[in-house]
Input
Amino acid sequence: MKKKLYTAIGLMSGTSMDGIDLSIISSDGYDEFSNILDDYYKYDKNLQDQLVRLRDLVVTKSDLLQNSEKLRELERNLTLFHADAVNQSLKKYRNHIDLIGFHGQTIFHNPQEKITNQLGDGKLLSQIVKKKVIYDFRQADIQNNGQGAPLTPIFHYVLSKKINQNFSIKFPIAFLNIGGIANITKINNDSDNFQNNLSAFDIGPGNCLIDEWVRKNSNKKFDENGELAKNGKVDQLILNQVIDNFKLNSYSQSLDVKNFDVSFARGLSLEDGCATITVFTAYLIAEGLKHISKKNIITFLICGGGRKNIYLIDCLKNYLSNEKNITLKFTDNYNLNGDYIESQAFAFLAIRSFLNLPISFSTTTGCKEFTVGGKLVKNF
Output
């Protein structure tokens, strides 16, 4: 029997804090998926500066309490921005929308203390846009002893089946998302036994160190195409020291941008620091890929904003040049826009949450048992 198709909007604002990715999809929450529309809404400078400033202020649980009034005001402004983005996209797509998956903007994430904070008022968004909203996706997983991230693997599974069928790419297939943090999903086969078929984890910084360095040392927000790094010179002594001193003891913990800092590059020029930090980032990503590809021949499909950093990708390929079992491809080669995988994912997760289907598993977030995340609100 054919399952009902739902139409959902997914809203994703990542750790780069540059704007909102918005996607409209149609899916049954299981295997069926089609993409309808993708849009990007850039934060104005004032909103972005407020977000970055407040995220930098909130380092501990007590900082959340100390800055609660500022957080409430910023959450309202952020939600209003999301509502405007939704209404603008609904002028382009005038058909019925069943649900909105609202990720919000992460300000603080510490699963060890069972705290994850994403700014975004689901009730207010529902009231303004007159739609059912699913929000607060990570909290249930954390309360179930999970890491609260990554949550996209179940959507990657659906995409992997399409890629396998349409392009004859053999399993196992893995997705490498290079956002602020880099994470991997590995899909062993097309079985829907997710507990044995999916594995996922964060592997280190993606864009976060590069973005932070550029923001602190120039009037730019990021290193477009890796041009700054390309024009710099890697400080080999500093690079060797930071590689020796920084160790990820396991890949079982989710990561936050606050787990890393750029102090090791202090004193370098803008370009040299950018080059050194980018090579260090590529090294950590390469180590993560090697870890997951042991005894397997794997095609890694790269998505996220980091895939556009040509220098970073070239450094990554250089670190993997002797790894015969690893193939790197871009999701864009398979009719998937690598900028919008996560916003599409949160539309899909909203549908699964609405259907009371699990969105995270012990092999993806470390939760005790599979978890249905997200809160449903209808406030109109």
The mean pLDDT is 95. The radius of gyration is 20 Å. The chain has two domains: 6-148+342-377, 153-334.
